[in-house]
Amino acid sequence: MEISPETVSGDLIEIDGEDHQHISKSLRMKPGEGLVLCSGDETEYVCDIYEISKKHTVARVEKIQKNQSEMQIKTILYQGVPKGQKMETVIQKCVELGVDQIVPVITRRTVVKPADLDKKTARWNKISQEAAKQSGRGKIPLITEPVELKGIEELLKKNALNIVAYENETIGIKEIFSRFSHPERIGIVIGPEGGFDNCEIKMLESLGVIAVSLGKRILRTETAGMALLSMIVYQYEL
Ligand code: SAM
């Protein structure tokens, strides 16, 4: 679970709501058992359970440490919103792989209607939370509200390197990695099922985004971000 400062009192942390239910009912944990809690800033609280009541679980902090599972290089995925449940798959898998933030993007070929996206952000953040929990992440990656592709210029400026995966490109990712030894923040732009049109690629390139190939085969939109993230993990982390 992610804790906030209000839940900490001395060396005791009060846990209620869904996390309390999870600890007491699903995991059937008992006083004395160990538990690791994290804050949004990658700080970990290594605890043991002090008390479990109907209302809450109280954990006692034994050690505070920095979470070791976060990537040093931050990756931000700008994902063209796909149809149906595919965005959920993208979020779950990319959070497992270490993505720092996901920005759902509406492009010319996005078929999902903006009105249908209205209620999705809360659910998508919940999926991020679950995936972060299961992967032992030190933070819960934020899934932002959807943005229009033409509106991402400002967001991209924060990144040291921006890449757009483009199936018609011949430059491979290895070539790009060889040019950037340790970029602090990498933006990854992935198209929806119908891909990007030429104008969108030109617009992104005019913003300094580098088009790359992910190989000779066309990947599904939900595979492309995962593949590129895995390549980044391999290149900069392993
Ligand atoms: N029609 C399939 C689908 O339903 O998902 C494939 C869609 S593919 C055009 C979607 C996006 O994945 C592209 O816009 C691109 O960002 C990325 N992509 C897929 N294969 C790629 C490749 N071989 N190289 C670079 N990018 C790729």
Automatic annotation (TrEMBL):
Catalytic class of the enzyme: transferase
Alphabetic keyword roster: Cytoplasm, Methyltransferase, rRNA processing, S-adenosyl-L-methionine, Transferase
Gene Ontology biological-process annotations: rRNA base methylation
A GO MF term: rRNA (uridine-N3-)-methyltransferase activity
Domain Ribosomal RNA small subunit methyltransferase E PUA-like, residue spans: 15-60
PANTHER family according to UniProt: 16S RRNA (URACIL(1498)-N(3))-METHYLTRANSFERASE, RIBOSOMAL RNA SMALL SUBUNIT METHYLTRANSFERASE E
Family named by the database record: Belongs to the RNA methyltransferase RsmE family.
Function as written in the Swiss-Prot or TrEMBL entry: Specifically methylates the N3 position of the uracil ring of uridine 1498 (m3U1498) in 16S rRNA. Acts on the fully assembled 30S ribosomal subunit.
Name of protein: Ribosomal RNA small subunit methyltransferase E
UniProt organism field: Alkalibacter saccharofermentans DSM 14828
